[in-house]
Amino acid sequence: MNRRNFLITTGAAMAAAAVPPSLLSCSSAPRTVAKTGKLTLTFEPYELQLRHAFNLARYSRTTTPDVQVKLEFDGITGYGEASMPPYLGESVESVTKFLSSLDLAQFNDPFRVEDILAYVDSVADGNRAAKASVDIALHDLLGKIMGQPWYKIWGLDPAKTPVTSFTIGIDTEEVVRQKVEEARPYKLIKVKMGLDKDRETIDIIKEMMPDVPICVDVNQGWDNKEKALEMCHWLQERGCVFVEQPFDKTWIDETAWLTERSPLPIIADEAFQRLPDIVRFKGVYSGINIKLMKSTGLHEAYKMITLARALDMKVMIGCMTETSCAVSAAANLSPLVDFADLDGNLLIANDRFTGMTVVDGKITLRDLPGIGAELL
Prior knowledge:
- By secondary structure, the protein is an alpha/beta fold.
- Helix content is 35%, strand content 21%.
- The chain has 13 helices and 18 strands.
- Strand 10, helix 9 (252-261) and strand 11 form a beta-alpha-beta unit.
- It starts with a helix and ends with a strand.
């Protein structure tokens, strides 16, 4: 069956099958309050300060705009956040405007997750990170009401969490060596690529950590499919386990060509956003990188994992530069995935939460109700 016929015959059925068992920061003096009833939503901007400049193939930054969120019900508080790297197209202004427009007073029961999140999603198109902040806070709130962490509510085994990669961005040799030293506790190194120093960066890492596997994130930086295939073979010889977003997200045919021939799995990131994207990328990519800020939160992310598994696709759970609030929320899903890249909290210098930890390179979940994060 060719790819087009596959998509036509399976799309609706797969989407219908991907239904999860799911139901669903932060200052003492928030500056903005949205209209609510029993559910009270408060939020405020919070700029994330990066430990190192975050250098990618197409841009560099030293901060990430963020909005911290609280959702309160009967004296219990759930925390969430919206992190906004440039490519999402969101800003502090757009997130706070969206959150201000929400009216949750129509819902008397916070357990009406499907209705609440369907309403939040319907208020305006886009605004995925803003929607994720409400979703995360709602999950945290409900987990606290039930007195259980979400990985237990989902019936997941915390012993099955994968190792997480540690990200090394594009930089000078001196800074790359410094970052490799910081990465020594980790069992998988993620390398940002897409410029003319790709091979040199890999050589430095393999010189310093010869036995540690790597994965690479090109962030749409390659522009020649034959050279990309050659690079995939070169990377495989150096212990690489997958290649993430090699081409511009609009290069569908070129990506399918590479995926068919590459010795390494090709994972979608920027090209992939929400649940409907999965079916149309079957055969184009080997797998998907789910991030809560792209997917509108945990509720849809769970559905994505279910659908991707049904289509025999690899699944990765990732993050933006975020506090331990959003990273811990995503970590609850990690026993379900093949790969994890949950180091966003480790890349910032002003984390406001404690949450999931990395022990001997492995994601370690906390037995705390909700998403497993606590405000410092």
